[in-house]
Specification:
With about 120 residues, the chain is mainly α. It contains 6 helices and 3 strands. The longest helix is centred in the middle third of the chain and has 17 residues. The two termini are about 30 Å apart.
């Protein structure tokens, strides 16, 4: 898979698709016009780019995701940890918590998550 990063505007566009899929490309053009003030050619250009990256597909005029929103952001998070912290989740959490105090609820949620991933 190619570049899975999305810029701010691409993220807004992707959210339109994720919220409304499957949808016709005509519906997407209308929604992009309303929500992003894009014309038809801009919509199709950005859609083509995101399809080339393997995030969406446009087959027979029907637009849908190859990667669901949760899958996409999980991959993006994994790539960030890999690129920035040599793949070390503990190093990421140490950096994250050095500036942000975790609430008791957040700590409990992390413990529950960790325990669910054991054995």
């Amino acid at each position: 898979m190619g570049d899975i990063k999305l810029g701010a505007v691409e993220s807004k566009f992707a959210d339109i698709i994720w919220k409304n899929e499957p949808m016709t490309s005509r519906q997407l053009v209308e929604m992009a016009k309303q929500e992003l003030d894009w014309n038809k050619s801009t919509t199709y250009t950005i859609l083509r780019r995101l399809c080339e990256r393997g995030i969406f597909t446009n087959e027979n005029g029907v637009v849908s995701s190859v990667l669901k929103k949760g899958e996409f952001y999980a991959m993006q998070s994994e790539q960030f940890v890999e690129d920035t912290f040599s793949g070390s989740l503990p190093a990421f959490l140490a950096a994250f918590t050095s500036r942000k105090q975790l609430s008791d609820q957040e700590i409990d949620e992390l413990i529950t998550l960790i325990n669910s991933k054991r054995g």
